[in-house]
Specification:
Elements (H helix, E strand, L loop, with lengths): L1 E9 L2 E2 L2 E2 H14 L9 E6 L10 E7 L2 H9 L1 H13 E10 L1
Antiparallel strand pairs: 1-5, 1-6, 2-3, 4-5
Helix pairs in contact: 1-3
Length: 100
């Protein structure tokens, strides 16, 4: 089992939305992915409830059977669409991949 964790900090406003609106919009896009990307075994999205200078705004936690499945997910057109949007509205991104 491979766990893939991504955290983002978002711009205060971007693409015509506030940070809160972008968080909600992206959360919805991410939560729709398991229906179209069958290699996703588990997906959970959290929006930070306690903002701070060192805090990230959102976290994505996903599980895959293998690195190959993670690669399939990364290249899937629906994931690419989400990723392209996120790249327009984020300030920073951190990723951790580990076996469980």
């Amino acid at each position: 089992m491979l766990k893939h964790v991504v955290m983002w900090q978002f711009k205060d406003s971007a693409e015509g939305r506030t940070k809160a609106e972008n968080c909600a919009y992206i959360k919805g896009m991410l939560e729709a992915l398991p229906a179209t990307v069958p290699v996703i075994r588990k997906l959970e999205v959290g929006i930070n409830e306690f903002p701070g200078a060192m805090a990230y705004d959102m976290v994505l936690m996903t599980e895959f059977d293998s690195k190959d499945d993670l690669d399939i997910y990364a290249a899937h057109p629906n994931h690419v669409r989400v990723s392209e949007y996120v790249s327009k509205v984020r300030v920073s991104r951190a990723v951790v991949d580990f076996s469980a």
